[in-house]
């Protein structure tokens, strides 16, 4: 009886530890557009993300905004468990102006950070948890409610 109880406790602890390590995280990125032209945000590629899908394009209307839900992956195949998660987008407007935008969620010294950076030529203000996260990242960004805000100027 003691062996069965010990085995059950060990199995339960393993399941709890495994589910925590393999849990995915949901995020909502809010894109806000303060300009008079629509912005088109096309996902080029991603690493360790379930959604959105590569190739998808979202339109941010002039003087409007959209929410883009995202889910990362912590599966055991590949380097996703506790590994960096990343999405790369191309951003353009009605002119042939194209710039890149990169969302990256990574672990450094045991703390998760979220950083969203732009290439030159894209005027944007980016905050995570109400702090700038476009240069060094912002620690501990949770998924809800939409602490990641990208404002196109």
CA-based shape:
globular
> Which class of secondary structure composition applies to the elements?
mainly beta
**Low-pLDDT segments:** 5-21
Query: Over the alpha carbons, how many angstroms does the gyration radius reach?
Result: 19 Å
Describe this structure in words.
By secondary structure, this protein is mainly beta. Helix content is 13%, strand content 48%. It contains 1 helix and 12 strands. It has a 6-stranded mixed β-sheet, with no helix packed on it. Strands 4-2-6-7-8-11 form a 6-stranded antiparallel β-sheet, with no helix packed on it. The termini are far apart.
Secondary-structure topology with pairs:
Elements: H1 2-21, E1 26-33, E2 39-47, E3 49-51, E4 57-60, E5 64-72, E6 85-92, E7 98-108, E8 111-118, E9 124-128, E10 131-132, E11 138-139, E12 148-152
Question: Which features would summarize this protein structure in a list?
Answer:
153 residues; mainly beta; 6-stranded mixed β-sheet; 6-stranded antiparallel β-sheet; globular
Short description:
This protein has about 150 residues and is mostly beta strands.
